Predict the structure.
Amino acid sequence: MTEHTLLEVKDLKVQIPTRRGVLTPVNEVSFTIGRGEIVGVVGESGAGKSITGSAIIGLLDRPARISSGSVTLQGEVISGLNEEQLRRVRGKRIGTVFQDPLTSLDPLMSIGDQLSETAMAHLAISREAAREKALQALIDVGIPAAESRLDAYPHEFSGGMRQRVVIALALIGEPDLIIADEPTTALDVSVQAQVLMLLKRLCRERNTGVMLITHDMGVIAETTDRVVVLYAGRVAEIGNTEQVLTSAKHPYTRGLVGATPNPANMDGDNARLNQIPGSMPGLLALPTGCPFHPRCSEVMPVCKTEQPALTPLGDTTIACHLATEASA
Amino acid sequence: MTRKTLSTAVLIALASQGVMSAAHAETLRWARAGDSLTLDPHSQNEGPTHTLAHQIYEPLLQRDMAGQVIPALATEWGPTDDPTVWRFKLREGVTFHGGEEFNADDVVFSLERAMMPTSAMKELLSSVESVTKVDDFTIDITTTGPNPLMPNNLTNLFMMDSGWTVDNDSAEPQDIANGGDNFAAKNANGTGAYTLVSRVVDERTVLQANDNYWGKGSFPLEVTEIVYTPIQSAATRVAALLSGEVDFIQDVPVQDLARVDETDSLKVVKAAQNRTIFFGMNSGADDIESDDVDGANPFADVRVREAMNMAINREAIQRVVMRGQSEPTGVIMPPFVNGWTEEFDAYPAADMAAAKALMADAGYGDGFSVVLNCPNDRYINDEAICQAAVGMWAQIGVTVNLDAKPKAQHFPLIQNKTTDFYMLGWGVPTFDSEYIFNFLVHSTTDDRGSWNNTGYSNADVDAMIVSLASETDLDARNATIQSIWETVQAETIYLPIHNQILNWGMKDNISFDVQPEDQPHFKFLTYAN
Amino acid sequence: MASSRLARWWQSDVMWSWRRSPVAIVSTLLFFALVAAAVFAPLVAPYTPFDPASLNLMDGFTAPMQSGLGSGNMYWLGTDDQGRDIFSAILYGMRLSLFIGVMAVAFAAFLGISLGLIAGYFGGWIDAIIMRIADIQLTFPSILVAMLIFGVARGLTPPELRDQMAIYVLILSIGLSDWVQFARTVRSSAMVEARKEYVQAARLIGRSPFVILRKHLLPNVMSPVLVIATISLALAIILEATLSFLGVGAPPTKPSLGTLISIGQDFLFAGEWWIILFPSITLLVLALSVNLLGDWLRDVLNPKLR
Amino acid sequence: MFAYIIRRLFQGALVLAIVGFIAFCMFRFIGDPYENILGQDATVQDRLALEERLGLNDPIPVQYFKFLGNAVQGEFGVSYRNGIPVAEMIAQRLPATIELAVVSAIFAVVLGVLFGVYTAINRDGFLANFIMTSSLIGVSLPTFLIGILLIWVFAVELKMLPSFGRGETVDVFGWKTGLLTASGLKSLILPSITLGLYQMTLVMRLVRSEMLEVLRTDYIRFARARGLARRAINFGHALKNTLLPVVTIIGIQLGQIIAFAIITETVFQWPGVGLLFINAVNFVDVPIMATYLLLVGTLFVLINLVVDLLYVIIDPRLRLDGTEAR
């Protein structure tokens, strides 16, 4: 861990006991986020992206729980904190943006109240000051005529505007880290880019780290500095965004990149997307060895028996027997 | 006049009692099932209404706690030489609560008021032709024919002050049916032992001892304040007595008598009531609808009626349903009614075998089925009695479907003659058989037989009943009564069950006899210490 | 084949959580034991309390475990004021209460589901009319509805049918006061389903609305209906008891549990506690087991709470 | 908004007219008032004369429209039983019922919401499970039985509380209240528990299940992610959102409370309109019965209107157009 490291997730394991056995939606996941760095976490649905995000801020729904591993924020281990201590982390040190702005806001409270309520929960300021701050936050996220809209209710905003409000809420406690869980998925394509750009701009201005959870490689490409690829609860590959996009090492990452429409990999008449065959296995029926091996185009015998360890390979780190081979 | 001397003796006895008792302030908290319907004393002919009126108003003659007629506002009375004219001497020196003096004008006014069309008491005075003032404290009542029992009809006819009543626009009795609402219905100005302090209908009525009461010294008058609360639910009423929230209740459920009696501070006082419970059935029709026999009426056969009479185990009803609080009887009148004899009162022992044999004789060996209409809120354990009887008749093959309803729905069935088999209870306010015959035995005509739903119609009997009204020879009259009863009993037109016994529950320091008409007169109440 | 289906049923989510919930197991067993006792009352009960000819009045008010004075018969739970065996009367009374409850709920469910499906599927003014009627129905409390229907029915039925009439009037009035819940729930589910493609497709290929309602919409609303039905059953049993107290319930010659209790309350202060106690306990256990079952079902079948 | 209220009031009036007509027709079958009015000494002639006077010979619609016409003018006729104007009797009895209903409703709503929130927040706690299970006992016993048991225990055996009536009352601007005297308050305890217990259980269970659903919504999760205090989340956000559906049900339940007051008032001899109604039923006092039903209907219409308006106040989403409150 360097002094620039903001968040360190180490060997994080989340388990859910169910009647059919213990599920492990997040399995020994490790990565770091530096100050002011935007890190994308990408994978298909069910890969464990959102649960990882929830685990970091201690918002796992019962009966899910962190069974091992640690989350360290600015040198302080926060994975074992109690509810009250965690509360002071949330909003104050880690802001959160959820996927659906339509449902993230309390429909019965004006957004001004929601903003100042959050500000007052974390900053020792008066009601008037909080309201001032709320207004500033709205202006910062680009809400037009912000003053007149402080007393408006969520249903009076469009989807894109609402997500701006959500971002304002995430930032109002002046956190060092933002966890943005699919912040644009529910929005119209036309406003997706605006919202992403806003998030990126604000975080750059404030030197805030961002953990951007998404399934969209396009978003990753446009926004992030580094990317963590998850597959079936495990890290498949971590690396610089550019590197991962242009020369992914893990067959799964390559598949993901290939499945994304991108002028770069379209060649003339053969412009068609590559699909990864099959689908991600259910957590109850994980294959032995590498979980990706049934779908892998470069499967080797060892893949069926041994789980590959996370190994550095060039500029990136991957969990693949190919890498082990290459480095061996 | 023997009647007069008797009354005087009673009065003297009472007077001596009154002198002995101490006059300290006592509040009596009194509860019963229902409230008085109105304070207007002539607007309703109904028990609870009269009970309250008796505390405030007074009639010329009244019944004491033993049911005997004693003088009230009249001191002497008797027929004159003309048997159609009765003369009444009035009590002097009596004032109304408002201070007005009581005199003959008030009596003439009150009796005439009670004979008006809107009065509910007019039937009791139907034989009265005129009421005339002789002097300030003497009046004459002239009847259409000789009426030997006329005074008996006056015990619930209350005297109002003519001035007060007329001045307050209450010259006519409150016409409840037509929505009449008058001053006298909500206010009271009587001569009685208690004056009205406050009243909220169905909730609470407060009375206070009348300081100027003429009967001071003649009656105990130990109760100085009466708080009257109607409590409808039997369980709650008993609970109120058990928890000490009230001192005196009427209508104690028979099952709770033992509990009340065993409670240290409480006791139960009983007396035979002036009410007989019986079943009536339609024996007059050729066919009835509510049975399963086509083209015939099983009740028309006297053997069926006798069999059903015989199937009733009256002792079992008395012991279990009534907990001993009834007197089984074979005739539809209580013992103190003129005309009652032990022979009539005797009832057949329950004999299922003999009853079945009679049924077979009548051609109903396989039984039949019929609907019995029964009230469920009128008489003591009325519905339970019906149920018990249903079980007994089932044993002789008569399948009885019981239809029990509140009294408001039950009585119209009898009056509209839409029931063939029903329960009814009958009280005899005049203490004379004629009253029973007029309503229950005479065939239904415009002015008689309104409660005779049996279809029984016997011209000879009808003639004898009509003759009673004008028969002045008491012996001859009694003989006629006997012979009517003999016919009625032989025909088994009713199935008598029992005479009710009244029960009052009270604090055990209260000394108070049960009045057979269920009319407590609180001026008679005394405390033990 | 059958055994594997049984095994699959046993392994299903619902049964899995049933096996893990002691409350559910106990209440199910209690409920079915009571139902069995009620259904087989003629076989289980030592006496025939609904047959007036079999009653011996002299046995009245016999205390539990005592012999009656009239017949010398032994009564486990004592007798009531008519000499009716309380134990047998409870069994028969429960049979009646359950019959009234089940039929009332079935009636309410049938009415509510039909109207709810129609309202949700067709929408528009049909929906508006049905839901307006539902609103009016809701504003009218069940006991008033029951008292009014009872009053009318009593006036209209021939006297010899009154005993049966009372039971059907109870079913009708309890059912009428209860259908709105079903209708509202079903309507909202039906509205969601009716917009889905498969229903639109079925519509386009010209299947009759009736078939669509029955085949496609009905199965989708069954689990909330089951939950409502369970809770309604308990409510119906209690409501029946209340109406009997007000004198518009089952006749005392054929007492339901509620009628037995309201008979028994007359004898509570008199010390004849068994007449009210045993029927009350039975009613409590019956309603409680149904309520517990309904609670558990709601938690299990409600996907939002899983 | 204004048009909306007018429309609801119009609908309400229509409902009332229908309710009144159905009720009025039904009463024709309940029984005849003759015997009760005339007494046992009445002759056949008396009965015919009375029938004529009461107008009971008119066709039912005529009788109904007479009644309705008078009712609009505040003239509800006169009790068959004791000749007092119905409006006067109802006015005299209404305070008792309203006080009982309001105290019961407050009892039911306050405890119901508190218990509901508690059991929802501590879903698997021992005390929460205990409350949930024991609350079921409350809905598994009929009201009248609870009342009688309370009387038996607290009045007859312990002699702690009164078994009947409403104790001393004080006249406050013509409103007779039992809330200002010690005996009046004591008299309120048992009846309001009896009446409110069932509703309390319902409110509690409803609040719990709604709250559980609300607690799983995104905005609650987001509120937690914003680091708001537990209390602020549970009461500031979750409870407020829970109350939305609860308010409707509470409105309906208030109507049920007034109806079930009939039973409680019978058991406790509470001198309210419910007892008046039951007495009227026993006496076939049609004017009182009809007026009572109209009154109850009016109350329900008003309660529904208030509930709809409350909805608008609580839920800002309905404020702008405000035409459809559901």
Remarks:
- The CA atoms of residues 7 and 73 of chain A lie 5 Å apart.
- The longest helix of chain A spans residues 189-206.
